[in-house]
Amino acid sequence: MSGCNETTDVLLLGKGDNLHQQVLASFPLCDVTEDDLTQNPQFCKLLATLTQYVDKTGLTVPLKTDLDKAEQKLQSKRRQWLRSESLYRGLQEMIQDHSVKKHHTTVPPDQNMFYETMEKCLLVAKCVKQLDPSSTTNQDQPSVLGLTSQHIMELMPLEKNVQRMRQGLPRQLEKHLKGKCLSLLSYYQPEWENESEGLKTIKLAHLSALLEKEKKRAENLKELCRENTFLLQQQTQLYLSELTKCIQLLQTLILEHRLKIQTDLDRKKLDYFEGKCDLVLQKIKMEMVEIQLETYTPDTISAHRKIREKLESELKACTAEKQSVELKLSSFEILGKEFETLAEEYCRLRQEIEMKHWALKELTQYSNK
Length: 369
Known about the structure:
This protein is an all-alpha fold. It contains 12 helices and no strands. It has helices at 2-15, 17-26, 34-39, 41-50, 61-104, 109-131, 149-153, 159-188, 197-205, 207-295, 298-334, 337-368.
């Protein structure tokens, strides 16, 4: 029976769109899509159960509580450090401003004594802090040149000068901090710079609220940007999924219909190339006829005919002569090899006679000259 109820819960988890959205909103840092939850209902049920024990960052409730306490303690320590550091830096700035002012204008002796005493006190306090062991460890720091804090305290100014400095310090520090706050106000709203000091003081009282408001606005914009980024990632994944489906469908259409379309296309291409080939052949024949017409004029054709007739008559005569010579040769071949020797001797004598006739002719021409 329990197995049946569990199966029913799993089916409900797999079909509940609101539940999917709640799970995705509860785990924004988890790279999970709604399709993943639909395909894995058991995993969706596990995430829905974990939402009761963990927060959006994946921390458990006790761990989140301890982390908040540690964060509050850290913030308290940080505020203390910032308070002391701000005070120290403010005093340093006052000393620097006095040093610059002393080089440009004449400073009263009492004011000069005030800043010199404050500078010496700060320097002694800094040295004592460097020589004192750390409060976070039980180990003693090694001494520097054998000095102790008592040696450094001996360098303090006179007690009356220190008391006078302490009495005037709050007023001077307040004046310095007020000037910095007014400078910050002018930087935040430059159009307020030319207003009266009283009005600036009133607006300065509301500066922290304005800055806090701007900070909250920036945080809200950052959170909105984070939500938009998460929504954009979801839409991008959905778009890529749909695009993949479209590509698969397109591939199916191509594989199914490409062969049919390719057959028709090949047949049309074949008809086109056949027609083009016939056209090229007809054009070649036309060019050949034009060349022949340009080359063979009526006069040329009649001359060629006469030449052909003459060549044919000569061919007939040569053919007849060849036949008569072949008959003579066949009759000579009957006589045998002895006649062949006589024939060669006869040819040799004829050649000698011709050579002597040629030499006699040349000699006669040379004698006549």
